[in-house]
């Protein structure tokens, strides 16, 4: 198969979808790998390293998109890339379609096979989301700490406190991968940390993991309100796989926070959990202030630490990419449940139920569409 790796074009997105060793891995299956010129530079990989690994360096994004049978990316395509969509093109990347109505429309109208990293599922876990959630969870606390500093618009507190002065309060809503990694760093800094989750079993696990340094609280509106209004830093880390994130923190709760407090809505890629987060921010312009509270809502946080993130991401994506390239999309989807769960668009339909529900599309199971295919459709 011909596999294309375009350079990422989202604001400050310095990750790349393949490392030179990933190229060698795909070449071992007999595949051709086209890498757009300078695609790896932001992550510290030169064109020469890709060439040594067996890739062809291609000057233009258009040529990569138009020649490849499968495009592997990091972030969802932006509007300027929709022109390359075509029937049967395999697109393997983060898609977050519940929050991307126009992209969903462009993918379905053009018959793209969209396989989303974030819904690939193994034993109820999301292995292609996990490493980036680990990165974002750890970053969320260091970013929050930075924006609590007065010159960055915050109230001017040090989360760790000092002898004789109280520590800061960190509230984390959602105790999955992002939440647990945020808790680890916040506890490491010495902050008072409260974490809320809907799932009591998960709270039990975290209680066992972190002991007395973490307060675990069941998630309901009253507990969320109490934890939010007492926090210096609130981190949004909830996920309902594939679906738009629920707005758990209301505008009224935010109004009750002390001025100069900070919100980091990591879940913004699925629409965010704060009513007051009304737009995605960028690494260039990461915050805005509403009701006196600093809001941070960058949807590609790991893009700021690309060397770590690219290696962590490609560690987990490459085996799936190789299987799709070896077998072709249809056979890979039929033989691997994890890949089947990743398929969000196929043959003009939305094939992931929560995305279809949130966007108001009819949901079609991908297997049904495959069964209906004429031999030449894909
Ligand atoms: N902004 C960025 O750059 C990045 C964003 N993310 C996003 O962060 C979010 C969280 O991801 P993960 O931690 O990997 O998900 P996860 O599935 O590991 O954890 C989500 C947690 O939310 C909990 N939850 C669900 N409903 C809840 C509620 N009403 N109240 C409290 N907790 C609730 C679940 O029980 C689960 O423990 C996702 O939207 C993910 O895409 C991940 C990486 C980077
Ligand atoms: C999860 C995701 O969307 C990211 O790492 O950018």
UniProtKB/TrEMBL annotation:
<feature type="binding site">
    <location>
        <begin position="298"/>
        <end position="301"/>
    </location>
    <ligand>
        <name>NAD(+)</name>
    </ligand>
</feature>
<feature type="binding site">
    <location>
        <position position="202"/>
    </location>
    <ligand>
        <name>NAD(+)</name>
    </ligand>
</feature>
<dbReference type="GO" id="GO:0005886">
    <property type="term" value="C:plasma membrane"/>
</dbReference>
<feature type="binding site">
    <location>
        <begin position="266"/>
        <end position="269"/>
    </location>
    <ligand>
        <name>NAD(+)</name>
    </ligand>
</feature>
<protein>
    <recommendedName>
        <fullName>Alanine dehydrogenase</fullName>
        <ecNumber>1.4.1.1</ecNumber>
    </recommendedName>
</protein>
<feature type="binding site">
    <location>
        <position position="75"/>
    </location>
    <ligand>
        <name>substrate</name>
    </ligand>
</feature>
<dbReference type="InterPro" id="IPR008141">
    <property type="entry name" value="Ala_DH"/>
</dbReference>
<dbReference type="Pfam" id="PF05222">
    <property type="entry name" value="AlaDh_PNT_N"/>
</dbReference>
<keyword id="KW-0547">Nucleotide-binding</keyword>
<feature type="domain" description="Alanine dehydrogenase/pyridine nucleotide transhydrogenase NAD(H)-binding">
    <location>
        <begin position="148"/>
        <end position="297"/>
    </location>
</feature>
<dbReference type="Pfam" id="PF01262">
    <property type="entry name" value="AlaDh_PNT_C"/>
</dbReference>
<feature type="binding site">
    <location>
        <begin position="238"/>
        <end position="239"/>
    </location>
    <ligand>
        <name>NAD(+)</name>
    </ligand>
</feature>
<feature type="domain" description="Alanine dehydrogenase/pyridine nucleotide transhydrogenase N-terminal">
    <location>
        <begin position="4"/>
        <end position="136"/>
    </location>
</feature>
<dbReference type="InterPro" id="IPR007698">
    <property type="entry name" value="AlaDH/PNT_NAD(H)-bd"/>
</dbReference>
<dbReference type="GO" id="GO:0000166">
    <property type="term" value="F:nucleotide binding"/>
</dbReference>
<dbReference type="InterPro" id="IPR008143">
    <property type="entry name" value="Ala_DH/PNT_CS2"/>
</dbReference>
<dbReference type="InterPro" id="IPR036291">
    <property type="entry name" value="NAD(P)-bd_dom_sf"/>
</dbReference>
<comment type="similarity">
    <text>Belongs to the AlaDH/PNT family.</text>
</comment>
<feature type="binding site">
    <location>
        <position position="219"/>
    </location>
    <ligand>
        <name>NAD(+)</name>
    </ligand>
</feature>
<keyword id="KW-0520">NAD</keyword>
<feature type="binding site">
    <location>
        <position position="197"/>
    </location>
    <ligand>
        <name>NAD(+)</name>
    </ligand>
</feature>
<feature type="binding site">
    <location>
        <position position="133"/>
    </location>
    <ligand>
        <name>NAD(+)</name>
    </ligand>
</feature>
<feature type="active site" description="Proton donor/acceptor">
    <location>
        <position position="269"/>
    </location>
</feature>
<dbReference type="GO" id="GO:0000286">
    <property type="term" value="F:alanine dehydrogenase activity"/>
</dbReference>
<dbReference type="InterPro" id="IPR008142">
    <property type="entry name" value="AlaDH/PNT_CS1"/>
</dbReference>
<feature type="active site" description="Proton donor/acceptor">
    <location>
        <position position="96"/>
    </location>
</feature>
<comment type="pathway">
    <text>Amino-acid degradation; L-alanine degradation via dehydrogenase pathway; NH(3) and pyruvate from L-alanine: step 1/1.</text>
</comment>
<dbReference type="InterPro" id="IPR007886">
    <property type="entry name" value="AlaDH/PNT_N"/>
</dbReference>
<dbReference type="GO" id="GO:0042853">
    <property type="term" value="P:L-alanine catabolic process"/>
</dbReference>
<feature type="binding site">
    <location>
        <position position="15"/>
    </location>
    <ligand>
        <name>substrate</name>
    </ligand>
</feature>
<keyword id="KW-0560">Oxidoreductase</keyword>
């Amino acid at each position: 198969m011909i596999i294309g790796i375009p350079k990422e074009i989202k604001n400050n997105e310095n990750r790349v979808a393949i490392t030179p060793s990933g190229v060698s891995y795909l070449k071992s299956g007999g595949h051709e790998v086209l890498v757009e010129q300078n695609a790896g530079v932001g992550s510290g990989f030169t064109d020469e390293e890709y060439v040594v690994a067996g890739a062809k360096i291609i000057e233009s994004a258009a040529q990569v998109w138009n020649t490849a049978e499968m495009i592997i990316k990091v972030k969802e395509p932006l509007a300027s890339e929709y022109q390359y969509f075509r029937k049967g093109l395999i697109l393997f990347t983060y898609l977050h379609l519940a929050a991307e109505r126009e992209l969903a429309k462009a993918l379905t109208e053009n018959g793209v096979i969209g396989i989303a990293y974030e819904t690939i599922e193994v034993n109820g876990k999301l292995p292609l989301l996990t490493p980036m959630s680990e990165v974002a969870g750890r970053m969320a606390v260091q970013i929050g700490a930075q924006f609590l500093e007065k010159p960055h618009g915050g109230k001017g507190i040090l989360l760790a406190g000092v002898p004789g002065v109280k520590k800061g309060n960190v509230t984390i809503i959602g105790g999955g991968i992002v939440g647990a990694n945020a808790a680890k760093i916040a506890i490491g800094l010495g902050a008072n940390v409260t974490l809320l989750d809907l799932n009591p079993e998960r709270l039990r696990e975290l209680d066992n993991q972190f002991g007395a340094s973490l307060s675990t609280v069941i998630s309901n509106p009253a507990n969320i309100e109490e934890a939010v209004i007492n926090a210096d830093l609130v981190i949004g880390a909830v996920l309902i796989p594939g679906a738009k994130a629920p707005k758990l923190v209301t505008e009224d709760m935010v109004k009750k926070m002390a001025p100069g407090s900070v919100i980091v809505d990591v879940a913004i890629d699925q629409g965010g959990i704060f009513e007051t987060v009304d737009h995605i921010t960028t690494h260039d312009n990461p915050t805005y202030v509403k009701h006196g509270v600093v809001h941070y809502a960058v949807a590609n946080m790991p893009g700021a630490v690309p060397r770590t993130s690219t290696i962590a991401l490609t560690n987990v994506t490459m085996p799936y990419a190789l299987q799709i390239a070896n077998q072709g999309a249809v056979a890979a989807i039929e033989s691997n449940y994890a890949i089947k769960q990743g398929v969000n668009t196929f043959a003009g339909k939305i094939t992931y139920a929560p995305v279809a529900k949130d966007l108001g599309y009819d949901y079609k199971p991908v297997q049904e569409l495959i069964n209906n295919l004429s031999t030449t459709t894909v």
